[in-house]
Amino acid sequence: MPQSAPSQSPFAPASAAPGGIPSAALWTAAAHAAECLRPAPLVRDPWAADLLHAAGFDGGPPGEGTMQRLLPDWQVVRTRFFDDHLLTAARSGCRQVVVLGAGLDTRAFRLDWPTGVHVFEVEDPAVLAFKEQVLDGSGLSCGRRTAVGAGGTACWREELRAAGFDPGRPTAWHCEAPLYFLRPPEVEAVVAAMTELSAPGSTFGAECVNSATTSSPLVAPFMDALSTIGLAWNWQLAEPERWWAEHGWDAGVADPFTLPYAVERLSPYLPLIGTAAAESVFLTTGTLRGTA
Fold first, then answer.
1. Which of 65, 110, 155, 263 has a CA 20 to 30 Å removed from the CA of 38?
2. pLDDT tens digit string along 2-51?
3. CATH number of the 23-288 domain
4. For residue 118, what are the β-bridge partners?
5. Tell me, what DSSP letter sits at residue 193?
C-alpha cells in the first residue's frame, strides 16, 4: 500500500488523514468514487476508488449536519462545473493548465483534452509521490503532464517555471477549493504570482467562500465541526468580482441554479436549505484583465 509523509501542501490545510493525504482531497475523491456508481455520473473518475483504497480511507468530514449530507453532491457539481470551464479554456487557446493544490485531481487522465495541452500539477511532493504510485501506468488524456513538487506558497512559482512552464503562453489556472484554507496574505501571494505569470488570454477558476453566509444556521455548524480537526475557511469574500478585479482579473460568479445538472442534483435538498448552500460559496471564473 502506498504511504506518504504528513502533508505540507502549499495549498491545503495542515489537517490530513492518517496516510498523510489532505482530508479535503480525500472527501472529494470519495464523492467521485460514489458518483462513478451512478447510472449516468456527472463526473467520471475511475481512479478515485483506487486512491481511497491506497490511502486506507473510508469516511468523510466530521459531524452529521445538513452540510455534511449535502457535501458529496456539491463536490460533484463543483467538479463538473470546473471540468467544463477548463475544457472550454483549453479549446479557446489555453494549452497550459496549472492545477494549484492538485491533491488527488485526475483531470490529466480523465478529461477529453484538445491536442497539445500540458497539465502542471502543483502539490506537496509526498502527495504527488502517493498519487504516482496509484496512477502508475495509467494513460494520459492530455498531451503532457508534469508534477511540480512544492513545499510552500513562497516557492512554487520558481519550481513551476523550472518544470517547463512558459509564462509567455496563455494559461488556465485552477484552484478548485484550496485557496479558502489559506490565510489572506497567502492568497494574495498566490494570486499575485498567477497574475505575474499569465500571458494575455489566460483564465482562472476558483471556489471562494461567501463571507456573508459563514455565520448562518446552515454553515456555522459545519465550520464548527471542521474546527475539531484543525480546519478553517480562512479566506472569505463579500464581493468576489471586485476582489479579483483589484488583482488583475475580470471575474464572474456562476449561478448554480442555471446549470441543469446542478438543479437536478441539488433539488432534493432545497426543502431543507433553500438556495443557501449554493450561496455559501462562489464558483468563480475569469480572464486576465484587458484580454477577454
1. 65
2. 333 334 566 665 555 555 788 899 999 999 999 999 999 999 999 999 99
3. 3.40.50.150
4. 96, 144
5. H
